[in-house]
Fold this sequence. Notes:
Elements: H1 11-18, H2 21-24, H3 28-45, H4 50-62, H5 66-69, H6 76-89, H7 96-104, H8 117-131, H9 142-151, H10 157-169, H11 172-183
Helix pairs in contact: 1-4, 3-4, 3-8, 4-7, 6-7, 7-8, 10-11
Amino acid sequence: xxNIEIKPDRPNVEALLARYAAQIGQDLPGYRNHxxxxxxxxxxxxxxxxxxxxLVETAFAYHDIGLWTDHELAYLEPSEAVALxxxxxxxxxxxxxxxxxxxxxxxxxxxxxxxxAEVIEACRKADWIDxxxxxxxxxxxxxxISAVEAAFPNLGFHATLLRLAKDYGGSTLRGGIRVTLGIxxx
Length: 186
């Protein structure tokens, strides 16, 4: 039995992704579900605290967006730039340092220990769970992962990442190496 809260509709996320729907194109359904899975895991790690929800939703809506906005395999900094610019442009009032950190450190291999560690670490663990399709669970029960994956199917998201690595890198191997060097943090 799963003990994770699954919210099938997040109006804030839908509004954020709608701004970039044309750029993301056919990849939007898979990316959307990846975003929803990551938010669900992160909010679970944060005990469902509503004080963090808007920031977590925004960070995940933007965390990989540089793949489409900048066509860049080293997409962390472009994703951060788009998120920070929109935070300022639309006066969301989100903590810019925390928003940047949640995006910047989401591929960190080891635990994050620094400012805003609770939220950044929840986001980091959430993305690793989803990026590995639950192979790395980061303390998340298998039943929770199964429930989240059933609610938000993959819809080809991981295949999209491989395709973009090939498209932007010249080959899946070269692109995979470029993306790994560009986004993995120690």
